[in-house]
Write a structure and sequence with these properties.
This protein is an alpha/beta fold. It has two domains: 3-160, Rossmann fold; 186-510, 3-Layer(aba) Sandwich (UDP-N-acetylmuramoyl-L-alanine:D-glutamate ligase), CATH 3.40.1190. It is built from 18 helices and 19 strands. It has helices at 3-6, 10-22, 39-49, 76-84, 101-107, 128-138, 153-160, 166-177, 180-190, 236-244, 265-271, 316-329, 348-357, 390-397, 404-415, 456-469, 474-488, 500-510; strands at residues 7-8, 27-32, 54-60, 91-95, 111-115, 142-146, 195-200, 202-215, 222-235, 249-257, 276-283, 289-296, 301-308, 335-340, 361-365, 385-389, 420-424, 430-434, 439-443. The strands form three sheets. The protein has a nine-stranded mixed β-sheet, sandwiched between helices. The chain has a six-stranded parallel β-sheet with strand order 1-4-3-2-5-6, sandwiched between helices. A four-stranded mixed β-sheet has the order 9-8-12-13. The longest helix is centred in the last third of the chain and has 15 residues, at 474-488.
Length: 512
């Protein structure tokens, strides 16, 4: 059999499996990423081959591999070609899903073989192995584990391939030596029982995908053709969805447009995770803030943006409603995260309640086109943790020339009473300051592959705020935040959110 003939689509492999079973042949299935084929894989496949007459190997497609930034190193077809070249493998299939479930339903194997590192289901952070066992047994098959010499593709790639530049590689080496993987796992475990309140402006993000048709015949402008659009619950809702994967309970206090407006409440409620409670107030006569980005779809280049909003201050009775609800419930939460986008919800009176009553207060005061640089973090007298990007931090201290380290460790602490400060710096990573350490730690960025930067800072804040609240080392927290940011910049808009299992797997992969 020629090797290319071994590589089949999911539909083809299902038909092949049906014919094999009809002939009385038993089928063994192995599934994985197989990013770097090594002797451990070879021995696993050799043992698996002994369980049946036919060995089918499936691999996870590139876009569904969740092993950290820059993975997989080798594309799907290359990985499939390597496996197909092995004489003991009969067929190879690429699976376009996060798990092996589609191939298990298609093949209905008599034996599903996994490596020995999956024997303890508690060690599988994704939780997929239990579901996969159920599917195998549903069709009368069995799950078996092969135990032989064990290697890690991730470890080999980290050590011998130039996956990262020297600074990142040295940083990961030192963190691994300090048992960083266990520290991250411990930090994630510490926050799982926490209750979080997210306060801030509601934003709906719409992506309208357009292609250029050319210059208008009678005007000096470019005409575009609308192809499709997606509408997401962004702002505080995105932050809530990120943190809800890590914590027990999350509530959102925000404002929506009045029912007589297109206030997107149905979209918002449908977008929230089950453990999120929505506490909206309705601003009659005003819309829910909608930000429409017109996007060239091939390379996801954003062309321009249109705001639909009323960012004038709330009426006194409206502000009293927001403040009253906040004051009543704020002490019920372990952490309060403030997403202050400067669109009118948070008044001086609201800030007073937040700074005086919150048990742990984490804040981002965002600078965007809608607030014209007037929304500075310094309007808050104190916080327990602030997370800003470099332009936001520089504008707050009115300094565009000092080093980021100086802004983070000297200038900002002089402006606001806050013991924990992180400044994010895009492809340069982040800078972390804790008052008791008297220094600023630089944590390098973990990916240079950016699909969409929208909401990356919010994801960073959402995941790290509870970790700072439980006393996590600020440098380790910065590392976790960089992972959250790396995950988020690989997501278009708010199609998906940072998942705890994905973040854990990224950390484990990076530190192997």
């Amino acid at each position: 059999m020629q090797e290319p003939g071994k590589i089949k689509t999911l539909d083809e492999i299902e038909r092949i499996a049906d014919r094999l079973r009809a002939k009385g042949r038993s089928i063994t299935l192995c599934h994985g990423v197989f990013d770097l084929l090594h002797v451990g894989h070879l021995r696993h496949l050799r043992v698996a081959r002994g369980f049946g007459d036919t060995l089918i190997v499936s691999i996870t497609a590139d876009e569904f591999v969740q092993k950290g930034p820059g993975r997989p190193v080798f594309q799907s077809l290359l990985r499939a070609e390597m496996l197909a070249a092995l004489e003991l493998v009969d067929y190879v299939c690429v699976v376009y899903d996060l798990s092996a479930e589609p191939i298990l339903h298609a093949v209905k194997p008599s034996t599903y073989a996994k490596g020995g590192d999956y024997i303890d289901p508690d060690q599988d952070v994704t939780g997929k192995i239990v579901r996969e066992r159920d599917i195998v047994e549903q069709y009368g098959g069995k799950l078996v584990f092969t135990e032989d010499i064990t290697f890690s593709s991730s470890n080999l790639l980290n050590r011998f391939f130039n996956v990262f530049d020297p600074e990142v590689k040295a940083y990961l080496h030192d963190l691994k030596a300090a048992d960083g993987a266990a520290q991250v796992a411990g930090l994630i475990d510490k926050i799982k029982g926490m209750n979080v309140l997210v306060v801030g402006d509601a934003i709906i993000d719409r992506y309208s995908y357009v292609t250029a048709m050319g210059k208008s015949a009678k005007e000096h402008m470019i005409a575009t053709l609308l192809q499709s659009s997606e509408t997401f619950a962004g702002g505080v809702f995105a932050t809530a969805n990120h943190v809800a994967s890590f914590c027990n309970r999350v509530d959102v206090l925000t404002g929506l447009g009045g029912p007589e407006e297109e206030n997107f409440e149905d979209l918002v409620r449908a977008s929230l995770r089950p453990n999120i409670g929505l506490m909206p107030f309705y601003r009659h006569g005003a819309p829910t803030t909608l930000k429409t980005r017109f996007v060239e779809p091939t390379y996801l280049r954003k062309l321009f943006e249109v705001y639909s909003m009323d960012d004038s201050p709330l009426k006194p009775d409206e502000q009293e409603q927001v403040n009253g609800r906040l004051k009543t419930c704020i002490r019920d939460y372990d952490v309060v995260i403030v997403n202050d986008f400067g669109h009118g919800l948070i008044a001086r009176s609201t800030i007073d309640i937040l700074t005086e009553e919150a048990r742990f207060l984490a804040i981002n005061a965002q600078i965007n086109a809608g607030n014209n640089g007037f929304n500075l973090i310094t309007k808050y007298s104190r916080a327990d943790y602030i997370c800003l990007d470099v332009p936001e931090a520089r504008m707050a201290v009115h300094d565009k020339t000092s080093s980021v380290e100086a802004v983070c460790g000297e200038l900002l602490p002089a402006q606001i009473d806050c013991p924990n400060i992180i400044i994010t710096h895009g492809k340069s990573g982040c800078f972390a300051f804790h008052r008791g350490r008297n220094d600023v730690t630089h944590i390098p960025a973990l990916t240079q592959q950016v699909v969409d930067t929208v909401g990356a800072g919010d994801a960073f804040l959402a995941v790290t705020a509870p970790m700072v609240a439980v006393g996590g080392d600020i440098a380790l927290v910065g590392f976790v935040g960089n992972i959250a940011g790396a995950v988020k910049v690989g997501i278009v808009g708010h199609r998906n959110f940072v998942e705890k299992s994905v973040l854990q797997k990224y950390a484990a992969t990076l530190l192997k």
